[in-house]
Amino acid sequence: MKIIEGGVTAAKGFEAAATAAGIKYQGRTDMAIIYSEKPCKVAGTFTTNVVKAAPVKWDRQIVESKQKSQAVIVNSGIANACTGEEGMKYCEETAKEAGKVLGIDEKGVLVGSTGVIGMQIPIDKIKAGITELAKGKKADLASGTEAAKAIMTTDTKKKEVAVTFMAGDTEVTIGGMAKGSGMIHPNMCTMLAFITTDAKISKKALQAAMSSDVEDTYNMISVDGDTSTNDTALLLANGMAGNEKIKEGTPEFDAFKEALHYVNETLAKAMAGDGEGATALFEVKVVGAQTKEQAKVLAKSVVCSNLTKAAIAGHDANWGRILCAMGYSGAQFDPEQVDLFFESCAGKLQIIANGTATDYSEEKATEILSQEKVTAIADLKAGDAEATAWGCDLTHGYIDINADYRS
């Protein structure tokens, strides 16, 4: 696998564009398109929230069918959630307009929305935006970057990544973009992720790869404990790399999964580190566990702890909060066997040995916790399983952003 420059336009046959439709924001782009020269097989995963936005319902029925897709239309600013029959009607109108303007099958047009819940989409602006997107779409990397910027809401930076790998003798590319900053919690989050690949792969293998990988990537991040109405992760494959069809249980499928995991994990970590008001990416590794499930439950409990997140914001080695979060996670372990370490680019320091504090340097701990990426490593010393979760620190900035989000 090789990391390359780019995002959703890195793979063969994919184009993208962004435009300012004036949906909610002024002075910035707020609509994007991803377009494929050839129809794509589609896989996807969606929010577990009982309250599901109209685009989630629309896309899910496409993913669950045999329908192929050539375009994704995304807007930021308004989520099209809790909008009733009218919201679903607007998804249909968006797809019809895109089908007409692009000359493709409207039944396969995917839609995505993110922003304020409860407001109706200004469909006339959406339709006008589609026309502009169709005119401006290009296959260059810059167009992919502009699309990644257009789907941001409270995000402070665009999120994109691309890799190549060999499927037999053929080079295959996977690229992606995402948005996510607040309302982020395991079981997906207020995130939109769009992954494109030129791999020729069976639909069954495509969905299997995406479904399994989400569990270790997007479902292992948290910013604030809120699971959104709009969570969507879509994977589109147009087959234009020209490789032999990838099927489950083959070395090529393993290579595909490895590349997809890198893309998804990179985007997931970027979202966690760009949490609203955050100053640091907070990574929690649980090692030495009896089972992977035990490790995942413990890691997510720590990364979701507001007290722990506040301690990270204050660069305070308050290890008791971490052990406490592990204790109420529901997973069974022996606290008197736990070793705990803090690690960053400033070094690594053991804080707990066998459940009690070591004679560590508070000054060194503060230095380690003052970096942009901080890792807590909890060793249960009970087995060989491990898991990693990602979150961020909790600062006053989070309240500043969310106290008046609608205005």
Automatic annotation (TrEMBL):
Q: What class of enzyme is it?
A: transferase
Gene Ontology MF terms: L-glutamate N-acetyltransferase activity; L-glutamate N-acetyltransferase activity, acting on acetyl-L-ornithine as donor
EC no. given is 2.3.1.35, 2.3.1.1
GO CC field? cytoplasm
Catalysed reaction(s) here are: L-glutamate + acetyl-CoA = N-acetyl-L-glutamate + CoA + H(+); N(2)-acetyl-L-ornithine + L-glutamate = N-acetyl-L-glutamate + L-ornithine
Keywords assigned by UniProt?
Acyltransferase, Amino-acid biosynthesis, Arginine biosynthesis, Autocatalytic cleavage, Cytoplasm, Multifunctional enzyme, Transferase
Q: Which residues form the active site?
A: T190 (nucleophile)
| Domain of life assignment | Bacteria
According to its UniProt record, where is this protein located? Cytoplasm
The answer to keyword Acyltransferase applying to this record is yes
Q: Which Pfam families match?
A: ArgJ
Record keyword Acyltransferase present: yes
The pathway entry for this protein reads as: Amino-acid biosynthesis; L-arginine biosynthesis; L-ornithine and N-acetyl-L-glutamate from L-glutamate and N(2)-acetyl-L-ornithine (cyclic): step 1/1; Amino-acid biosynthesis; L-arginine biosynthesis; N(2)-acetyl-L-ornithine from L-glutamate: step 1/4
Return the annotated site residues (Involved in the stabilization of negative charge on the oxyanion by the formation of the oxyanion hole). T114, G115
User: What HAMAP family is this protein classified in?
Assistant: ArgJ
**What's the stated role of this polypeptide?**
Catalyzes two activities which are involved in the cyclic version of arginine biosynthesis: the synthesis of N-acetylglutamate from glutamate and acetyl-CoA as the acetyl donor, and of ornithine by transacetylation between N(2)-acetylornithine and glutamate.
Q: Which PANTHER family match?
A: ARGININE BIOSYNTHESIS BIFUNCTIONAL PROTEIN ARGJ (PTHR23100), ARGININE BIOSYNTHESIS BIFUNCTIONAL PROTEIN ARGJ, MITOCHONDRIAL (PTHR23100:SF0)
Subunit arrangement?
Answer: Heterotetramer of two alpha and two beta chains.
Q: What name appears for this protein in its UniProt entry?
A: Arginine biosynthesis bifunctional protein ArgJ
Q: Can you name the source organism?
A: Mediterraneibacter faecis
